[in-house]
Design a protein that fits this description.
The protein is an alpha/beta fold. The chain has two domains: 2-151 and 247-291, Ribonuclease Z/Hydroxyacylglutathione hydrolase-like (Metallo-beta-lactamase, Chain A, 4-Layer Sandwich); 159-241, no CATH class. It is 23% helix and 28% strand. It has helices spanning 2-10, 71-81, 159-167, 179-189, 199-207, 249-259, 273-281, and strands spanning 12-15, 18-19, 22-23, 27-31, 34-38, 46-48, 67-70, 88-90, 95-98, 101-107, 115-119, 124-128, 141-146, 171-173, 194-196, 217-220, 228-231, 240-241, 263-269, 285-288. It starts with a helix and ends in an 8-residue tail after the last strand. The model has no long low-confidence stretch (mean pLDDT 97). One zinc ion (ZN) binds at residues 51, 53, 110, 129.
Length: 296
């Protein structure tokens, strides 16, 4: 039973919180008697919000004084909810100390504000969703995502096509939280003007200080695209430009290689049997939430 093995080696107990017939989302850990809940509803102890995407449950922690998030994540959550985030905020790269436990933070470039949390004294790295892993440290236990955990997911972002299409004045469909701001920054830095008509997109661009010229191109939610492209790595969109805020399958393997952990726990996304096998063949014991069989 790997979870107890990990507990014995590191002193950290990974567990899931029971709720109804199932569990609260994602994963929790108990470190020196202090509980940290990752990307989930509020619990006793502290809640870490790796980034502002709704499936990581930051909005449920908006009033939680013991929620931990980066400044940008808190700004985004506050803008979306219309309420002030009340938790503990930090710059990405800053070291936190919670009840004597030191936590380093690192960028993952998944979206504005996305941060990884490294419990250095215990060798545990919690990444959240990942786009770039170069700045992440080596660790003993890697707690990470597998959104593109199927080997068929191989892609490279087509940034040039994004810029070209915007120059032609086409519509660019981007998920309003995170991806739309990344597109906005890319266009602004290439001196391509655009319009934003979606309220959420323009609000987030404005609270994040993204300035731009006006132009014919439009950044809109994917559903509204008529004359242009949806920016996505999902293959079911007919008119798409490959543009993802995640690493692809190969990226997950490279992330593991980069951090060279003894264990990887996929706490989010879709780890396939092949991914687990590939990780094992690199000498990394690989676990999913099903293997986290301590339930409290
Ligand atoms: Zn995300
Ligand atoms: Zn996610």
């Amino acid at each position: 039973m790997e979870i107890l093995e990990i507990a014995e080696k590191t002193g950290v107990l990974f567990y899931r919180r029971r709720y109804g017939n199932g569990f609260r989302p994602h994963i929790s850990m108990r470190i020196d008697g202090v509980d940290f809940h990752i990307d989930t509803s509020p619990g006793r102890g502290y809640n870490i919000i790796t980034h502002a995407h709704t499936d990581h449950h930051g909005l449920r922690n908006i009033k939680n004084f013991r929620a931990i998030a980066s400044c940008e994540t808190s700004v985004i959550l506050s803008a979306i909810s219309g309420e002030n985030f009340r938790g503990i905020v930090h710059e990405i790269g800053e070291k936190l100390e919670i009840k004597g436990i030191e936590i380093d933070t690192f960028p993952t470039s998944h979206m504005d504000g996305s941060s990884a949390y490294f419990f250095r004294d215990y060798g545990i790295l919690v990444t959240g969703d990942v786009k770039r892993f170069e700045k992440l440290p080596e660790c003993e236990i890697l707690v990470t995502e597998a959104t593109y955990g199927h080997p068929s997911n191989r892609f490279v972002d087509e940034i040039d096509r994004v810029v070209e299409s915007a120059r032609k004045g086409l519509e660019l469909g981007a998920y309003p939280i995170g991806k739309a701001q990344r597109v906005a920054r890319i266009l602004a830095s290439n001196d391509v003007g655009f319009r934003v008509e979606d309220e959420r997109i323009s609000k987030l661009c404005s609270v994040l200080g993204i300035e731009h010229e006006e132009g014919d191109a439009r950044i809109i939610p994917p559903k509204k695209v008529v004359n242009g492209y949806v920016l996505s790595a999902q293959t079911f969109y007919r008119n798409r430009i490959v543009f993802s805020d995640h690493i692809d399958y190969r990226g997950i393997i490279e992330l593991i290689d980069h951090c060279s952990p003894s264990y990887v726990i996929f706490y989010h996304g879709n780890p396939t049997r092949k991914l687990l096998q590939d990780a094992e063949s690199m000498g990394t014991r690989s676990l999913t939430l099903k293997d986290v069989n301590v339930h409290l």
